[in-house]
Amino acid sequence: ERMIKSLAAFIIGTIVIWNFLDPVIRFVVRPIGRIVFTSPAEAFNARMTLAMIGGFLFASPVILYQLWKFISLGLTVIEQRYVKIFGPLSLIFFFAGIAFGYFVMLPISLNFLFSFSSSWMVPMITVDRYISFVGTIVISSGVTFELPLILAFLARLGIATPEFLRQKRRYAIVLILIVAALLTPPDIVSQIILTIPLLILYELGIFFAQLAGSPQK
Fold this sequence. Notes:
The chain is about 80% helix and about 0% strand. With about 220 residues, it is mostly helical.
């Protein structure tokens, strides 16, 4: 049932974004100014991809709500109270990550990658590749910004203490490097740009875990 509700919200969100797709495209393309397409179906496929990405973002409050409701089924009455706090915060952190991805990660990545162009090597960015690039960056950034809340939530449940997180820091760094490589486009700059905030978010997660304290008995 929760999956159906999330899927319905995603479909509705996709339809809504599709009806306002032109201004959305102008906003997404703004960092580079102009993009091209090289096959008859590419422009349509790119518009569908962008509508689905936008639909996911539009439906994310419903999806996160259903996810937290699912998680709460396995919690005690006292632990379920934490969901009322962490649930809304997770939405705020997710959109903060989206904003970071678009306004920080994307311009830096594009500036670096375009710096390799020259008079005999001119960038011709196709619409499908560009939208996939942008979507990967902003969604991965939004997801990774949930890290401090996840660590704090686990600490509140007594699963991961701040001391445990400090002790496992070196393993976390290796895992963060792997996650950044998997979530970002295949270029070292995007990986580094995501790795740095992930390391900061991990330390922030330890701080949040300390604030969360030990679980109530």
